[in-house]
């Protein structure tokens, strides 16, 4: 990639969390910038050495650090040998990092920068991006959480503004919640490890760069003992992925203990949450909450949310919708994770009896177990009111610019599930060239699904079902209508490879059919990934701007 403004290469920088404990940082200069660099070095546990000419005015805070012994001052001109003699013994005296605060015009800046590069010492020169091998980030920290922002040397003040806005968006106490969840994870891992589970089963993964693997939502089947034994850790991963941050940060040690107790054995469907039997008269509403964006709620569902005493939400109902729930209202989120759906559902039904309000993602009757819930509550004498919701099956494709029907291309839509009861594979639909097929709950077994759509099973001797051509266009649509919506456009031939490369961002579905190419024709590459969705929020602000300009 080339940067049009200055012709320099503008690849993304490699952003790191560098352990600088005990490092020696050389700071050239004694001005206010040197003072800021010194403070930063001390903050990260490094030992700063300041080199400044005898005549230089020492910034007052530098003088303070020097007087306390936190920083060391060498009052003379810089010498080349400083770079290789002032550092730690264990690295043969080479310093770990150099900050030059004399500005890009100073002859010494270029000279030292070149020397540092030759010695592979990371170097930063104030106001001279071309002399820097690294730049510092505008950072926000809360306990173990650190967020860094760079504008790639554009030097504008936007970075600190962005940092403030991001920090303001995050809930309070996120740092301690991360600490708490992290130590629970560690403890579970150690217990599972002590119980003799292999590293493969434990899926050790402490690297922040990796998102969810494409196997994240794989089912835990009854025969898969190793996976079943790690159910507590898998459940923890699930709440970290699905729970609203607000709820995660409010979690207490007691909450965690209680929840984990319920998941410590495979037979864990008992007295959890202390909800037993019917506790009061009331009304149950099964309310569809749409695919994710709060603007896609019906007014009926919105009113139900506002007036409920207790809300039981499906795991997939995303935070912006849950954020509409008044703070005083009790909220329970279904403890569903792959392989645990039946128990979690039973638990929700029991709680529903005691509590009497149920939030369903999408539309309650579309793979939402809405009718089962209806029957259950009716049998208990509480026939629910059911409120429809916009289903992800049709809206996800819309938000991915895929018209489910289109004149001359697609004249029918089929909605199917990729997962049958107890994880079994359902009957695959036969190829119909003018059909758009939407597969829900299918991505965790995408390759098996694609295989069965495009090839005959060895034991299928009749071979009567029409197979889907491998070049049929398709798209994976994940977190449709949410800010982190992602669309992967590909063909049946390449989609599995694409998904494996991109990883999983649940919930997601697969759309298959010629309609995928109506608004986005085939590209040159095997797949294309589109990130983000802001259509509804932009519409919001445009309408507001318009109203404002009319008032004026
Ligand atoms: N009742 C829901 C569907 C429940 S089944 C509805 O009408 O939308 C759960 C499946 O819905 C997920 O596995 C996924 O395939 C799909 N899904 C739900 N929300 C989604 C979203 N925002 N984006 C993409 N797929 C979604």
Automatic annotation (TrEMBL):
Entry annotated with the keyword Transcription: no
Pfam families: NAD_binding_7, Sirohm_synth_C, Sirohm_synth_M, TP_methylase
BP-aspect Gene Ontology terms: methionine biosynthetic process; methylation; siroheme biosynthetic process; sulfate assimilation
Superkingdom assignment: Eukaryota
Residue ranges occupied by any Siroheme synthase central domain in the UniProt entry: 142-168
GO MF, any single term: lyase activity
Catalytic activity: precorrin-2 + NAD(+) = sirohydrochlorin + NADH + 2 H(+); uroporphyrinogen III + 2 S-adenosyl-L-methionine = precorrin-2 + 2 S-adenosyl-L-homocysteine + H(+)
Keywords (A to Z) from UniProt: Amino-acid biosynthesis, Cobalamin biosynthesis, Lyase, Methionine biosynthesis, Methyltransferase, Multifunctional enzyme, NAD, Oxidoreductase, Porphyrin biosynthesis, S-adenosyl-L-methionine, Transferase
Domain (Tetrapyrrole methylase) ranges: 283-495
Pathway assigned to this chain's UniProt record: Porphyrin-containing compound metabolism; siroheme biosynthesis; sirohydrochlorin from precorrin-2: step 1/1
Function: Siroheme synthase involved in methionine biosynthesis.
Annotated protein name in UniProt: Precorrin-2 dehydrogenase
Lineage: Eukaryota, Fungi, Dikarya, Ascomycota, Pezizomycotina
